[in-house]
């Protein structure tokens, strides 16, 4: 890996295009290096993972709204939309499938200076692959790049410190991945990356206060923008440049300012793209920093015994967990039993309370309005708070994967004065956890989420298509779609009428 310093440059500076971060990303994307075998295997796992969470979310209102928007754009020779037959405009297929993937907050994650869900790259790349007749090997190569670029940006450039949403790293990564998949030249990918970044910078209000369905829509929008950006760049259209380093660019005005400097690691020429191996998926449908606390709560419940005897629970955790999903956010909505699912998903206090009571976590039951409103849950919920612990913050940002942690130490004080403590650094499903996810676990997650949603024969057909995707010939990727039972689609949540 090569570390690249990225900072603002004056318009009068001698700053050749080859030194622009977007150009360096484009060179990585255009590098014909082979995909390492373990990277390719993990990409297949994440394709399966995305299908699992899409099956679980397919009848929800935000997903249904996005799907109906896509179905209004039929296109012969186009792309597939999850759950249904037919061919549609690729950018709208990317949109609908991106919402399905993201709606339940249930797919892969990478956390460093910033945070991300790099599986959000899969819907736009699959859509473009289907439209353009790419092969399975082309798709694998493109996804290796997309994961690499997003994760490398996340390693070195913090967005949330400046209240910019994390999808600002997703637009460039998806554009770069599409460029790799289509075999585009460096200059075209450079322009697409710049356009995609320029159009995917937005504030973090989508994940603050009363959180709405836009939390799921924002990454899908970034994927759609990336498809459109590559399309324009292929037609010869350009982008603002230098997009990150310009005097009026992203760093100067949206991030750290004219004096800020960021270090972005990128693979050297000929170096295999392996970043996906540093990411991790979710066993539970909740914000990633809640994964270890859920497992910790399940582990502690027997030691605690009668939960009515709890006086207080304090979760000692990282800066990010405390301020984004903990009491450091100062969001009263995080204690509101009538809050939206998206808001409850970003309340570690609620999540810890329910996991402690139920000894389990379910993507539907754990968020049900009647579950959130249970008096005993509300009472316990109000007793839970978070504090930032510098050591947990340090471990959160550690570059050493063996030390990096996203968990917490729980201090439970009983009414008797007895104190019960325990801690968990990483979730059980994490690569260093008690039960790391491998192919078997990804397949089991798909089978569990698809049960009652997808016919068994269709499940088997998709699994075969996904596990052999690297062998798929050009134009043979439609099989990565999953047909959902008509009864499930008929039960989809009602939506309002739109313009189209």
From TrEMBL:
<keyword id="KW-0456">Lyase</keyword>
<dbReference type="InterPro" id="IPR045336">
    <property type="entry name" value="MmgE_PrpD_N"/>
</dbReference>
<comment type="pathway">
    <text>Carbohydrate metabolism; tricarboxylic acid cycle; isocitrate from oxaloacetate: step 1/2.</text>
</comment>
<dbReference type="GO" id="GO:0003994">
    <property type="term" value="F:aconitate hydratase activity"/>
</dbReference>
<dbReference type="GO" id="GO:0006099">
    <property type="term" value="P:tricarboxylic acid cycle"/>
</dbReference>
<dbReference type="Pfam" id="PF03972">
    <property type="entry name" value="MmgE_PrpD_N"/>
</dbReference>
<dbReference type="InterPro" id="IPR053420">
    <property type="entry name" value="2-Methylcitrate_Dehydratase"/>
</dbReference>
<dbReference type="InterPro" id="IPR045337">
    <property type="entry name" value="MmgE_PrpD_C"/>
</dbReference>
<dbReference type="InterPro" id="IPR036148">
    <property type="entry name" value="MmgE/PrpD_sf"/>
</dbReference>
<comment type="pathway">
    <text>Organic acid metabolism; propanoate degradation.</text>
</comment>
<dbReference type="InterPro" id="IPR005656">
    <property type="entry name" value="MmgE_PrpD"/>
</dbReference>
<dbReference type="GO" id="GO:0047547">
    <property type="term" value="F:2-methylcitrate dehydratase activity"/>
</dbReference>
<dbReference type="InterPro" id="IPR042183">
    <property type="entry name" value="MmgE/PrpD_sf_1"/>
</dbReference>
<dbReference type="InterPro" id="IPR042188">
    <property type="entry name" value="MmgE/PrpD_sf_2"/>
</dbReference>
<dbReference type="GO" id="GO:0019541">
    <property type="term" value="P:propionate metabolic process"/>
</dbReference>
<feature type="domain" description="MmgE/PrpD C-terminal">
    <location>
        <begin position="284"/>
        <end position="466"/>
    </location>
</feature>
<feature type="domain" description="MmgE/PrpD N-terminal">
    <location>
        <begin position="20"/>
        <end position="262"/>
    </location>
</feature>
<protein>
    <recommendedName>
        <fullName>Aconitate hydratase</fullName>
        <ecNumber>4.2.1.3</ecNumber>
        <ecNumber>4.2.1.79</ecNumber>
    </recommendedName>
</protein>
<comment type="similarity">
    <text>Belongs to the PrpD family.</text>
</comment>
<dbReference type="Pfam" id="PF19305">
    <property type="entry name" value="MmgE_PrpD_C"/>
</dbReference>
<comment type="subunit">
    <text>Monomer.</text>
</comment>
<keyword id="KW-0816">Tricarboxylic acid cycle</keyword>
């Amino acid at each position: 890996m090569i570390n690249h310093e990225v900072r603002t440059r004056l318009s009068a500076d001698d700053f050749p295009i080859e030194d622009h971060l977007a150009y360096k990303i484009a060179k990585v994307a255009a590098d014909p290096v082979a995909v390492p075998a373990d990277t390719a295997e993990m990409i297949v796992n994440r394709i399966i993972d995305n299908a699992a969470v899409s099956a679980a979310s397919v009848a929800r209102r935000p997903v249904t709204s996005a799907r109906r928007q896509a179905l209004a754009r039929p296109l012969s020779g186009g792309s597939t939309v999850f759950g249904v037959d037919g061919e549609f405009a690729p950018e709208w297929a990317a949109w609908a499938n991106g919402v399905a993937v993201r709606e339940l907050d249930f797919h892969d994650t990478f956390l460093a200076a910033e945070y991300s869900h790099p599986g959000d790259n899969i819907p736009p790349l699959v859509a473009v692959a289907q439209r353009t007749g790419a092969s399975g090997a082309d798709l694998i190569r493109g996804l290796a790049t997309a994961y690499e670029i997003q994760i490398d940006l996340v390693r070195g450039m913090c967005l949330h410190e400046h209240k910019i949403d994390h999808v600002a790293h997703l637009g460039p990564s998806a554009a770069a991945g599409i460029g790799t998949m289509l075999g585009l030249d460096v200059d075209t990918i450079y322009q697409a990356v710049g356009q995609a970044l320029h159009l995917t910078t937005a504030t973090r209000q989508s994940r603050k206060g009363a959180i709405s369905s836009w939390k799921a829509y924002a990454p899908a929008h970034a994927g759609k923008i990336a498809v459109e950006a590559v399309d324009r760049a292929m037609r010869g259209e350009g982008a603002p440049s230098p997009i990150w380093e310009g005097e009026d660019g992203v760093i100067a005005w949206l991030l750290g300012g004219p004096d800020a400097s960021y270090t972005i690691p990128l693979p050297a020429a000929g170096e295999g793209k392996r970043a996906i191996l540093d990411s991790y998926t979710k066993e539970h449908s909740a914000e990633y920093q809640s994964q270890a606390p859920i497992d910790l709560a399940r582990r502690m419940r027997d030691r605690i015994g009668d939960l009515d005897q709890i006086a207080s629970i304090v979760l000692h955790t990282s800066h990010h967990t405390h301020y984004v999903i903990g009491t450091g956010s100062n969001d009263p909505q995080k204690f509101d039993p009538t809050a939206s699912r998206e808001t409850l998903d970003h309340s570690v206090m609620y999540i810890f309370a329910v996991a402690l009571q139920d000894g389990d976590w379910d993507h539907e039951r754990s968020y049900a309005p009647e579950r959130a409103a249970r008096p005993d849950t509300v009472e316990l919920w109000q007793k839970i708070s978070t504090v930032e612990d510098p050591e947990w913050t340090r471990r959160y940002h550690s570059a050493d994967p063996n030390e990096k942690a996203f968990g917490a130490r729980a201090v439970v004080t009983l009414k008797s004065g007895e104190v019960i403590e325990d801690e968990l650094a990483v979730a059980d499903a994490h690569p260093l956890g008690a039960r790391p996810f491998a192919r078997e676990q990804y397949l089991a997650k798909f089978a569990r989420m698809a049960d009652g949603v997808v016919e068994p024969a269709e499940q088997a057909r998709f699994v075969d298509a996904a596990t052999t995707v690297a062998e798929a010939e050009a134009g043979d990727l439609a099989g990565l779609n999953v047909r959902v039972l008509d009864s499930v689609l008929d039960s989809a949540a009602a939506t309002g009428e739109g313009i189209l």
